[in-house]
Write a structure and sequence with these properties.
Helices cover about 60% and strands about 10% of the residues. It has about 220 residues and is an alpha/beta fold. It has a five-stranded parallel beta sheet with strand order 2-1-3-4-5, with helices on both faces. Helix 5 runs antiparallel to helix 6, helix 5 (about 110-145) runs parallel beside helix 7 (about 190-210) and helix 6 (about 150-185) runs antiparallel to helix 7 (about 190-210). The protein starts with 5 loop residues before the first strand and ends in a 15-residue tail after the last helix.
Length: about 220
């Protein structure tokens, strides 16, 4: 069963959080509320998130400061952040958002469809990356157990076939997502993330192909770091 992705919603106003939940509920993912920067950082200590929607104007720790803390942590630095703001102070203010590590900067009131579409892209990328990690874990199991006898060899062959089929499905989905991003002229960060995912998939496919009979077996597989 595919686990749902978690989306972190950070805003000090309950009505804004309620509005975000209404907009994003159609994605059928897990929506997590945080009413302050401190509460958001606490949630990020224990859970993995596909994307963070972060209000800029908050009392105490504002969105910029919260983003700075997120990007300093190794566990959370790669989570995409979409800034939401009710005030547009011009290009300098927007630049500060991108400098803080945001992948997008949206002014309120925003188009619900556009926001939902942007969040959906990062959820898709997150899910593909989770699938990739799963394939890598199965491949490591194959490498560690591929030195047995005939019986184990048959079991390994079956696992190889299953791995190959599952990897092919992820490859197809990743290719379709990249094509969609390019056609829609999506955010540069999203396109770059998708390209990085495809490179990882290519490396995993090469490693898997090296396990096929006649290719030298596990000894010819590059290290998976």
């Amino acid at each position: 069963m595919v686990q749902k992705a978690k989306i972190l919603l950070v805003d000090d106003r309950p009505e804004n959080l309620l509005a975000l939940e209404a907009i994003l509920s159609a994605l059928d993912q897990t929506l997590v509320r945080a009413s302050s920067g401190e509460e958001a950082l606490k949630a990020l200590l224990t859970d993995d998130f596909a994307v963070i929607l972060l209000d800029v104007q908050m009392p105490g720790m504002d969105g910029f400061e919260t983003a700075a803390h997120i990007k300093r942590r190794e566990r959370t630095r790669d989570i995409p952040i979409i800034f939401l703001t009710a005030i547009n102070h011009g290009p300098h203010h927007t630049f500060r958002g991108y400098a803080a590590g945001a992948v997008d900067y949206i002014s309120k009131p925003f188009d619900p469809w556009v926001l939902r579409a942007k969040v959906s892209v990062f959820v898709d990328l997150y899910m593909k990356n989770c699938q990739l990690k799963e394939q890598a874990a199965l491949l490591r199991l194959q490498l560690e157990g591929g030195k047995g006898g005939v019986g184990e060899g048959k079991e390994s062959a079956g696992l190889l076939a299953e791995l190959s089929a599952r990897l092919a499905a992820v490859e197809e989905q990743a290719e379709a997502l990249s094509k969609q991003l390019n056609e829609e002229s999506a955010d540069a960060a999203a396109v770059a993330t998708a390209a990085h995912l495809e490179r990882k998939l290519t490396g995993l496919r090469r490693a898997l192909d090296a396990l096929e009979p006649g290719t030298g077996g596990a000894s010819s597989v590059p290290s998976q770091s």
